[in-house]
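Q: What changes when nicotinamide-adenine-dinucleotide is included in the input?
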Amino acid sequence: MTKEMNQHMTKSEQRVALVTGAAQGIGAAIAKELAADGMKVVVADINGDGAQTVASEIDGVAKTLDVSDPDQVSATIADIVSEFGRIDVLVNNAALVPLTAWEDISFEEWRRVMSVNLDGIYLVTHAVTKVMGEAGYGRIVNIASNTFVAGTPNCAHYVATKGASIGLVRGLAGELGKLGITINAVAPGIIASEGVLTGPHVAGFDFVVPMQAINRRGMPSDVAPAVAFLASEKAEWITGQTLVVDAGHTRN
Ligand SMILES: NC(=O)c1ccc[n+]([C@@H]2O[C@H](COP(=O)([O-])OP(=O)(O)OC[C@H]3O[C@@H](n4cnc5c(N)ncnc54)[C@H](O)[C@@H]3O)[C@@H](O)[C@H]2O)c1
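A: The predicted holo structure follows.
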């Protein structure tokens, strides 16, 4: 479906996309890209004010949502279905991005990272695939990370969740394919999101950028088009895959 076609559709025909963790960074860039492709985008984030700001820029809808909370997830999905009657695209983007040496990772921190980065994907995907399955159409994209390929140190819990999100894509594609749903992962390299720029990961640019085939800092807008393609009807024949989007940083 082209952008022009989508813009001329009635409310009930327009594709609806749910992007989690979309108040800033890569998620916000994805929300803007999908809106530019003509979709109605639900901007969901634990930061409700940030979600509202992004949603207002793209004629989208904001939802305050902690993806690790089962009750919030089921209520949010029910709200979207009652408002729009459909969810065509799900981008599982929300995550905690810690930098903690192995010996300092407490069980509490381990559980919190698992809860947001992995349980959150389970909860949202499990609810949304019911809706997509009934419609016989769906596109799901998990935002993983090239840290799973690179084996980046000092975030073993994070890397474990990103590997698991790729595992879920591979393990679930067969069951979802029968329902007309594709599921893929996009694995970015280091990106100048708000989260990275305001945290300890920012130091990573100094040694990662020289290893990239393209030697500049990656921006959220460098990742969003790959996600938008996998979220489009054109990507019908691609499922169970992981697309690394890291300017050639990892290219063995
Ligand atoms: N920036 C990078 O270098 C990079 C690289 C590879 C992968 N990624 C992945 O891209 C995604 C986005 O990263 P980013 O750098 O834009 O992050 P960010 O920290 O800038 O933004 C993350 C967003 O997720 C939201 N969020 C956090 N916990 C949440 C929860 N429980 N429920 C709902 N929303 C929640 C935050 O409020 C925030 O708006 C993540 O999955 C991250 O792992 C980022």
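Observations recorded in class: The two ends are 35 Å apart (CA to CA).
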